[in-house]
Amino acid sequence: xxxxxxxxPFPVAPQAFNLAAHVLARAARLDKPALxxxxxxxxxTLTYSDLLRLTQGCAxxxxxxxxxxxxxxxxxxxxxxxxxxxxxxxxxxGLVPVPTSAALTAAEITRLVPRVAPKLIAAEPxxxxxxHPAPRLVPDLALWSSLPPAPLHAGDPNREAYxxxxxxxxxxxxxxxxxxxxxxxxxxxxxxxxxxxxxxRLLHAGALNWTYTLGTGLLDPWTVGGIALIPADGTPPSQxxxxxxxxxxxxxxxxxxxxxxxxxxxxxxxxxxxxALSAGESLSHALRTQWRARTGTGLHEALxxxxxxxxxxxxxxxxxxxxxxxxxxxxxxxxxxxxxxxxVPRGQPGELAVSTADPGLMRGYLGHPPPQGRWxxxxxxxxxxxxxxxxxxxxKDDLLNAGGFRVSPAExxxxxxxxxxxxxxxxxxxxxxxxxxxxxxxxxxxxxxAASTLQECAEKALARWKQPRHYQRLDALPRTGTGKLIRxxxxxxxxxxx
Length: 498
Known about the structure:
Blueprint: E1 4-6, H1 19-23, E2 33-38, E3 43-47, H2 48-64, E4 72-76, H3 82-92, E5 96-99, H4 106-112, E6 120-123, E7 136-137, H5 141-146, E8 160-165, E9 175-179, H6 187-194, E10 201-204, H7 211-224, E11 227-231, H8 240-247, E12 251-254, H9 256-262, E13 275-278, H10 285-295, E14 298-305, E15 309-313, E16 327-328, E17 333-337, E18 350-355, E19 364-365, E20 375-384, E21 390-395, E22 400-402, E23 405-407, H11 409-414, E24 424-433, E25 436-444, H12 451-461, E26 470-474
Parallel strand pairs: 2-11, 4-5, 4-6, 6-7, 10-11, 10-12, 12-13, 13-14, 25-26
Antiparallel strand pairs: 1-17, 2-3, 8-9, 9-19, 14-15, 15-16, 17-18, 18-20, 20-21, 22-23, 24-25
Helix pairs in contact: 2-3
């Protein structure tokens, strides 16, 4: 049996379609909060009627700046109410928002801006701005609330809706252009990953500019009529349990790194929490088990990327088998390919690929041709079990060479996830002498862990050729602003034993 699963079709988008209108289709009839920004001592809340009115009024303000459909708007905003309003308002008016991380320096954002050529920069005070001539717009919710609604710009579902930047873990960030149709691909996630309903209160622990937060934390709850809960800027993970309890969160979404930090805190009873969601990096079985033991709730992983969002996952209705990431979401067409582009037999490793007909797939990278051929190769290495469960082996270019054998760093790292005192680890290759490479494990822990303890742990779970030859403690593994491991940066941290 080959590693290919085709569960199409997806719903077909109308010829005249708008992503923002799809997300806000329920807003006019819902008398309830849509979004709450959670502060330690107070909350900021928008109702659905507020969200719709502000979105339409903001769209009017944007068009009054002389913008025309297709123009791009750079967003330099924090975790504030203005962020989702500007994002949806731009799309409502046929404009193209470009969310960016507020943590980027002026030099960093200046390097990225030429790729998107914005006609306007929407910015909040205190956030670094690029050296670019586009006019600035400061958010003004009071003004937007008073303006008449802008007409909806409906059109080709394949036209550009928004642009995002990849995290840049493997080099310079790429500008990814997404179509209005991308929102339709998220419908399968509501049931087959998030378990999301109109009654849910979903708290997402990430920054709003991140696609994981933007999609799972805002657009998905609003599409089904739920409530989005977002911690204010600067909220440390140690405060999340108290915020969850106060806000009666029924679903939590975060990265594995956040869950690791949460498990080091005192977690109060969370009677409203039904389950939790993980994405952004691979979730270990040990972390999933520890979360269930502490909270009594499931932790469900989804695998995806900026170019196509998530496409396989576990869910409350179908949990992922131990060690796997889950199953192909209904409506998707995926395969695990060999180097020649053909599906490999189930049980054999290969590269995950998504059909180029998937509505969630990007239009393309700006400055590059759109995806060609039958498959978009994701760069993720994986295997597919006979029942279709998929085990993620890491990035294809992260696979390590141990004694002439290829080995997944995730397999090595999994051997240490239950070790007391070790909070995170990452395997890679280092070069102790020119021309000689060995496997190394870098780890985070409050204090040193004896190499003999680490080696004993490796010997219990790994064949000899998979066992690291070097162990090194770091105060923190190198990560992007969204928490993704930068594996390529580990070798530079290597210290030769004295």
